[in-house]
User: Which sequence fits this backbone?
Protein backbone atom coordinates (compact mmCIF):
# COMPACT_ATOMS: atom_id res chain seq x y z
CA UNK A 1 0.00 0.00 0.00
CA UNK A 2 1.30 3.42 -0.97
CA UNK A 3 -0.21 6.61 0.39
CA UNK A 4 0.63 10.29 0.07
CA UNK A 5 -0.06 12.24 3.26
CA UNK A 6 -0.47 16.00 3.14
CA UNK A 7 0.04 16.89 6.80
CA UNK A 8 1.32 15.25 9.96
CA UNK A 9 -2.23 14.48 11.08
CA UNK A 10 -2.77 12.27 8.05
CA UNK A 11 0.43 10.37 8.86
CA UNK A 12 -0.72 10.02 12.48
CA UNK A 13 -4.01 8.55 11.29
CA UNK A 14 -2.14 5.97 9.19
CA UNK A 15 -0.33 4.77 12.32
CA UNK A 16 -3.53 4.85 14.33
CA UNK A 17 -5.37 2.77 11.72
CA UNK A 18 -2.61 0.19 11.53
CA UNK A 19 -2.53 -0.12 15.33
CA UNK A 20 -6.18 -1.16 15.31
CA UNK A 21 -5.31 -4.18 13.15
CA UNK A 22 -2.46 -5.49 15.28
CA UNK A 23 -2.90 -8.74 17.18
CA UNK A 24 0.40 -8.90 19.09
CA UNK A 25 3.85 -10.08 18.04
CA UNK A 26 4.12 -7.69 15.12
CA UNK A 27 7.37 -5.95 14.26
CA UNK A 28 7.02 -2.65 12.43
CA UNK A 29 10.24 -1.59 10.75
CA UNK A 30 10.24 2.07 9.75
CA UNK A 31 12.83 3.32 7.30
CA UNK A 32 13.47 6.25 5.01
CA UNK A 33 14.13 9.96 5.00
CA UNK A 34 14.95 12.05 8.05
CA UNK A 35 11.81 14.10 8.68
CA UNK A 36 9.87 11.59 6.63
CA UNK A 37 7.27 11.07 9.34
CA UNK A 38 8.46 7.95 11.19
CA UNK A 39 8.03 9.41 14.67
CA UNK A 40 4.77 11.03 13.64
CA UNK A 41 3.50 7.63 12.48
CA UNK A 42 4.63 6.00 15.75
CA UNK A 43 2.71 8.65 17.72
CA UNK A 44 -0.46 7.66 15.88
CA UNK A 45 0.32 4.01 16.39
CA UNK A 46 0.76 4.56 20.13
CA UNK A 47 -2.53 6.40 20.31
CA UNK A 48 -4.20 3.53 18.47
CA UNK A 49 -2.75 1.08 20.98
CA UNK A 50 -4.29 3.13 23.78
CA UNK A 51 -1.11 4.76 25.08
CA UNK A 52 -2.02 7.97 26.89
CA UNK A 53 1.54 9.07 27.60
CA UNK A 54 3.15 11.43 25.12
CA UNK A 55 5.45 9.48 22.84
CA UNK A 56 8.87 11.09 22.49
CA UNK A 57 11.78 9.92 20.41
CA UNK A 58 14.10 7.67 22.40
CA UNK A 59 17.11 9.50 21.02
CA UNK A 60 19.68 8.83 23.74
CA UNK A 61 18.69 5.46 25.08
CA UNK A 62 17.59 3.97 21.73
CA UNK A 63 14.47 2.39 23.23
CA UNK A 64 11.38 3.48 25.17
CA UNK A 65 9.05 0.84 26.58
CA UNK A 66 5.32 1.48 27.09
CA UNK A 67 3.11 -0.73 29.21
CA UNK A 68 -0.39 -1.36 27.94
CA UNK A 69 -3.51 -2.36 29.77
CA UNK A 70 -4.78 -4.55 27.00
CA UNK A 71 -5.76 -8.20 26.99
CA UNK A 72 -3.23 -9.49 24.50
CA UNK A 73 -0.75 -6.71 23.83
CA UNK A 74 1.12 -5.78 27.03
CA UNK A 75 4.18 -3.93 25.73
CA UNK A 76 4.99 -1.46 23.01
CA UNK A 77 8.70 -0.97 22.39
CA UNK A 78 9.67 2.15 20.47
CA UNK A 79 13.21 2.03 19.14
CA UNK A 80 15.04 4.80 17.30
CA UNK A 81 18.32 3.53 15.89
CA UNK A 82 19.45 6.82 14.37
CA UNK A 83 22.52 6.88 16.62
CA UNK A 84 23.27 3.18 16.36
CA UNK A 85 26.77 2.52 15.03
CA UNK A 86 26.91 -1.26 14.81
CA UNK A 87 23.91 -3.58 14.42
CA UNK A 88 25.41 -5.87 17.07
CA UNK A 89 24.90 -3.11 19.68
CA UNK A 90 21.14 -3.70 19.76
CA UNK A 91 21.73 -7.37 20.44
CA UNK A 92 24.31 -6.88 23.19
CA UNK A 93 22.03 -4.29 24.79
CA UNK A 94 19.26 -6.89 24.77
CA UNK A 95 16.89 -4.56 22.99
CA UNK A 96 15.53 -7.25 20.67
CA UNK A 97 15.13 -9.97 23.27
CA UNK A 98 11.33 -9.88 23.13
CA UNK A 99 11.12 -9.46 19.38
CA UNK A 100 8.07 -11.29 18.06
CA UNK A 101 6.73 -12.23 21.52
CA UNK A 102 2.94 -12.42 21.17
CA UNK A 103 2.31 -9.80 23.87
CA UNK A 104 4.60 -7.18 22.30
CA UNK A 105 4.59 -4.72 19.43
CA UNK A 106 7.89 -3.35 18.17
CA UNK A 107 8.12 -0.05 16.31
CA UNK A 108 11.67 0.49 15.07
CA UNK A 109 12.83 3.73 13.44
CA UNK A 110 15.90 3.47 11.19
CA UNK A 111 15.26 -0.27 11.00
CA UNK A 112 17.29 -0.49 7.78
CA UNK A 113 20.34 -0.49 10.07
CA UNK A 114 19.39 -3.91 11.43
CA UNK A 115 17.53 -5.36 8.46
CA UNK A 116 19.64 -8.54 8.54
CA UNK A 117 18.62 -9.23 12.13
CA UNK A 118 14.88 -8.72 11.65
CA UNK A 119 12.68 -11.74 10.93
CA UNK A 120 10.96 -12.34 7.63
CA UNK A 121 7.51 -11.52 8.99
CA UNK A 122 8.60 -7.93 9.70
CA UNK A 123 6.22 -5.29 8.35
CA UNK A 124 8.23 -2.63 6.51
CA UNK A 125 7.00 0.95 6.39
CA UNK A 126 8.98 3.27 4.13
CA UNK A 127 8.82 7.07 4.33
CA UNK A 128 9.75 9.50 1.61
CA UNK A 129 9.96 13.25 2.01
CA UNK A 130 8.32 14.68 -1.11
CA UNK A 131 7.88 18.33 -0.12
CA UNK A 132 7.23 20.62 2.82
CA UNK A 133 4.05 18.82 3.87
CA UNK A 134 4.02 15.92 1.48
CA UNK A 135 5.20 12.43 2.43
CA UNK A 136 4.93 9.09 0.70
CA UNK A 137 4.29 6.16 3.02
CA UNK A 138 4.50 2.59 1.81
CA UNK A 139 3.45 -0.38 3.93
CA UNK A 140 4.73 -3.79 2.85
CA UNK A 141 3.86 -7.21 4.20
CA UNK A 142 0.93 -8.11 6.43
CA UNK A 143 -1.62 -5.26 6.62
CA UNK A 144 0.05 -3.69 3.59
CA UNK A 145 -3.10 -3.82 1.50
P1 LIG B 1 11.22 11.18 11.24
O1 LIG B 1 10.93 10.51 12.54
O2 LIG B 1 11.02 10.29 10.04
O3 LIG B 1 12.55 11.85 11.20
P2 LIG B 1 9.24 13.07 12.11
O4 LIG B 1 7.92 12.39 12.20
O5 LIG B 1 9.98 13.32 13.36
O6 LIG B 1 10.13 12.30 11.03
O7 LIG B 1 9.16 14.49 11.43
C1 LIG B 1 8.25 14.84 10.51
C2 LIG B 1 8.10 16.34 10.57
O8 LIG B 1 7.48 16.74 9.38
C3 LIG B 1 7.23 16.76 11.72
O9 LIG B 1 7.63 18.01 12.21
C4 LIG B 1 5.85 16.91 11.05
O10 LIG B 1 5.02 17.83 11.67
C5 LIG B 1 6.26 17.37 9.66
N1 LIG B 1 5.33 16.97 8.59
C6 LIG B 1 4.86 17.77 7.63
N2 LIG B 1 4.07 17.11 6.77
C7 LIG B 1 4.03 15.83 7.21
C8 LIG B 1 3.40 14.68 6.73
N3 LIG B 1 2.63 14.65 5.62
N4 LIG B 1 3.58 13.56 7.42
C9 LIG B 1 4.37 13.54 8.52
N5 LIG B 1 5.01 14.61 9.01
C10 LIG B 1 4.86 15.77 8.35
MG1 LIG C 1 12.12 10.04 14.19
Assistant:
Amino acid sequence: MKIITKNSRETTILGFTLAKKLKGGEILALRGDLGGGKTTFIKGLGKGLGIKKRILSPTFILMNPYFLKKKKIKFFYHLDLYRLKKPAEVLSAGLLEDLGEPDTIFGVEWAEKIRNILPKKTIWVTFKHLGKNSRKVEIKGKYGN
